[in-house]
């Protein structure tokens, strides 16, 4: 299989402010590229006008779209922490987008085993220690799902698939702290 560059996408939301990060890694998990947005705080008027759709609008139409536009390394698959991110899947085009979550489910019989749960959801037993992972696909398209599953199996043999999401979150939190310090100086 060709080189599988995985992208990890995360949005932080704290105190009504949003910040996004996007890291592309190689097969071993080494960072190839990292992009992030400046923190965005919607105004009171925007909060009123957008109402309940504000969070989704900021995540999908502002943060995710801008991050995908900025990235230069084309990923084979985009990994996100929660299924709610998958509403932005149309921005990813033909790149599979998968929500990856650790579970407390009992171990599957063999490492690398995949069990279908729903049309857009499977459970995968990693090759490393740990319980199964839940993968939710951004599209019901069988071709995209099959490509994603091949990547998950290949990459999953070499490393923990979910660990880079933790790195993106830590990086965003560090950037957030630095932004707060700079804002406090002004």
Q: Can you put this structure into words, describing what you see?
A:
The chain has 186 residues and is α+β, with helices and mostly antiparallel strands. It has one domain (6-185): archaeoglobus fulgidus dsm 4304 fold, CATH 3.30.2170. It has 4 helices and 8 strands. Strands 3-2-1-4-5-8-7-6 form an 8-stranded mixed β-sheet, with helices on both faces. A hairpin with an 8-residue loop joins strand 7 and strand 8. The longest helix has 23 residues, at 163-185.
Sheet of most strands: 8 strands, mixed
Count the helices. How many?
4
Level-1 CATH class name: Alpha Beta
- Class computed from helices, strands and strand pairing: alpha+beta
**How many domains, in number, for the residues?**
1
- Over all CA atoms, what is the radius of gyration? 17 Å
The helical percent reads: 25-40%
Poorly predicted tracts of residues:
none
* Topology order in helix (H) and strand (E) letters: EEEHHEEEEEHH
Strand content: 25-35%
């Amino acid at each position: 299989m060709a080189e599988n560059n995985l992208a990890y996408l995360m949005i932080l939301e704290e105190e009504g402010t949003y910040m996004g990060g996007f890291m592309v890694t190689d097969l071993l998990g080494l960072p190839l590229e990292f992009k992030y947005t400046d923190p965005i705080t919607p105004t009171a008027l925007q909060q009123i006008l957008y109402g309940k759709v504000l969070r989704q609008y900021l995540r999908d139409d502002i943060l995710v779209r801008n991050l995908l536009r900025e990235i230069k390394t084309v990923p084979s698959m985009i990994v996100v922490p929660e299924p709610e991110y998958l509403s932005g899947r149309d921005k990813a085009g033909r790149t599979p987008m998968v929500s990856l979550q650790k579970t407390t489910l009992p171990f599957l019989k063999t490492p690398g085993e995949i069990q279908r749960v729903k049309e857009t959801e499977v459970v995968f037993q990693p090759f490393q220690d740990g319980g199964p992972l839940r993968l939710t696909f951004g599209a019901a398209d069988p071709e995209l799902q099959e490509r994603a599953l091949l990547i998950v199996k290949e990459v999953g043999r070499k490393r923990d698939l979910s660990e880079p999401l933790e790195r993106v979150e830590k990086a965003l939190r560090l950037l957030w702290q630095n932004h707060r310090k700079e804002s406090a100086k002004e």
